[in-house]
């Protein structure tokens, strides 16, 4: 188990018992950076027990305090945990989903969270099919990610990152919408190893 994902295992422990045990661990652990991991575990436990506001405060603290490179997995877990609590169309969601995607394109997909994209298509009927995918069309403001779907006798789907550092792009063609979209999702949300 990687340290950042350990909170997933601990989230079901009753909150009073978990808090008490966590305080024992915090007081005996001399590693200053480990405290952020304990905060993440507590945040996930708080969410499980309906205390989202307190969890959000901890997650915000983690995102501000974590070291950019050294704590990338911690930041990633904090990002997807926070994303699971906020509204899809909010500015926070747009900003945090982009940050998560830049850390690891697979993060959002693995967490079941969609990536907001500027969307264009010559066929409006694809919008409904797209709504259950790993993309969420969002055209209210310019985003770094674009999805273009050309429909006819077949489908051509193009994903482009315009202003990002990943230079991620993919073009997929196919006869069946769902299969073509699945291939595109596989391409877009895979990590380079």
Describe the protein in words.
The two termini are about 20 Å apart. Helix 3 runs antiparallel to helix 4. The mean pLDDT is about 90. With about 190 residues, this protein is of the alpha/beta class. The radius of gyration is 19 Å and the shape is elongated. It is about 50% helix and about 15% strand. A five-stranded mixed β-sheet has the order 2-1-3-4-5. The protein has helices spanning about 5-10, 15-30, 35-50, 50-65, 70-85, 90-105, 105-110, 125-130, 175-190, and strands spanning about 115-120, 135, 145-150, 155-160, 170-175.
The counted number of beta strands is 5
Strand content: 15-25%
**What is the overall silhouette?**
elongated
Q: Could you give the distance between the termini?
A: 19 Å
What is the helical fraction, as a range of percent? Answer: 40-55%
Number of helices: 9
Give the uncertain stretches in residue-range form: none
Sketch the major β-sheet: 5 strands, mixed
Side-by-side strand order of the widest sheet: 2-1-3-4-5
Structural class designation: alpha/beta
């Amino acid at each position: 188990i990687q340290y950042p994902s350990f909170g997933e295992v601990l989230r079901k422990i009753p909150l009073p018992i978990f808090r008490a045990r966590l305080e024992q661990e915090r007081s005996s652990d001399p590693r200053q950076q480990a405290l952020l991991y304990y905060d993440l575990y507590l945040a996930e436990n708080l969410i499980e027990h309906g205390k989202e506001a307190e969890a959000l405060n901890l997650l915000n603290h983690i995102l501000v305090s974590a070291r950019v490179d050294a704590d990338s997995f911690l930041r990633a877990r904090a990002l997807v945990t926070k994303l699971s609590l906020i509204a899809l169309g909010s500015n926070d969601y747009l900003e945090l989903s982009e940050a998560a995607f830049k850390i690891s394109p697979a993060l959002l997909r693995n967490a079941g969270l969609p990536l907001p994209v500027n969307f264009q298509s010559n066929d409006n009927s694809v919008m409904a099919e797209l709504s259950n995918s790993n993309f969420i069309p969002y055209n209210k403001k310019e985003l770094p990610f674009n999805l273009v779907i050309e429909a006819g006798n077949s489908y051509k789907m193009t994903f482009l990152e315009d202003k990002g550092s990943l230079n991620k792009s993919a073009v997929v063609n196919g006869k069946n919408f769902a299969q073509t979209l699945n291939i595109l999702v596989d391409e877009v949300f895979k990590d380079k190893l």
